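Box 4.2: Ligand-aware structure prediction
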Amino acid sequence: MFRDLADNKLPMGRLLGRLLHLIVLLALVGTPDKAVVAQQDRWAEPRAAMVRTIQAYTKLQPEVAGPGGISRAVLDVMGKVPRHRFVPERHKSLAYADRPLPIGDGQTISQPFIVALMTHLLKARPDSTVLEIGTGSGYQAAVLSPLVKSVCTIEIIPRLGEIAARRLKDLNYDNVQTKIGDGYFGWPECGPFDAIIVTAAAGHVPPPLVKQLKPGGRMVIPVGSVFGPQFLTLVEKTTDNRIKTRQFLPVRFVPLTRGQE
Ligand code: SAH
């Protein structure tokens, strides 16, 4: 009897030993940070809802994005980029609402539907080099980043440009180059470009940008006055260097301001 009990106790002891071993191992390896996981999950549903809103909005106006709507690749990226990391703390709760938000210095991060539409109209490919004028928060550059080979983005307000550059680096958007300057003149050293996106309204299409567009390239730019009507415009450079323009829809953007080069 005594012996039986002793025999029974032996495996139990081993089991406890193994359990202890496991606990020590787990402590050493570490478990996922629950706070971080919960934080990420918190934004997953609002972000998915934002993508659904963009899709629904596109279906209402099929003439804008074409019969297939906004491309799947663009929607997928917008379903991943953490927009809440690009808006000021006090507007975080609205990060995934389909509306523009203030980002300081009188500037705004564009409405998600407009970001999706402009990205879609660029028809950029994985081997494309893209120029953005108006880095702002860096969100548009982050959306472009996984879709293309490289993004060069220019911001005229140093404070905004510096914050965006740091943010893009922290979030590992490694194929994005940033610069402070007047985007009217483009960035010849980074180009020529397959696609150019201007996220501030210009009175006319800047000739230096047309020049830096490759044959077959596309530029999407809001054209119009600050107070008057502005139209989202597609500028295409044909393979034989002719320029074609097409207006899409009325929009409201902050103005493309002019600095000194
Ligand atoms: N694309 C941005 C939003 C742009 S708001 C985002 O995703 O957050 C427009 C930005 O264009 C503003 O930050 C404004 O300062 C900048 N801007 C205006 N004129 C400019 C110019 N000439 N060159 C470069 N940036 C300009």
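In the box above, the bound molecule is S-adenosyl-L-homocysteine. The longest strand covers residues 213-224.
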